[in-house]
Amino acid sequence: MKQLRLTLLCVIALAGCTATPDIEPLPGSLTYGETASSRKTQAAPGTKIQNRFLHQGRTVYETYEVQPDHTYKLIRRSMVDSLGD
């Protein structure tokens, strides 16, 4: 019984780790202000698309994945401070 509880606890903990929340697009993101069906590409599903832009003085790097319906899904974002003059 003790081992069953431990196994269930581990399963619940791991399920929480694999769930990734949707990243909201920023102004400058490829999907900002668009509905899912408004931006389509002919790239193959699974293709990764990179985007780089400035947002509030920071350089933003984004990675999108082309979905089976050929829309973009934002899957990764990183931000770094831009160098000043």
UniProtKB/TrEMBL annotation:
Keywords: Signal. Residues 1-21 form the signal peptide. This is Transmembrane protein. It comes from the Bacteria. It comes from Sinorhizobium glycinis.
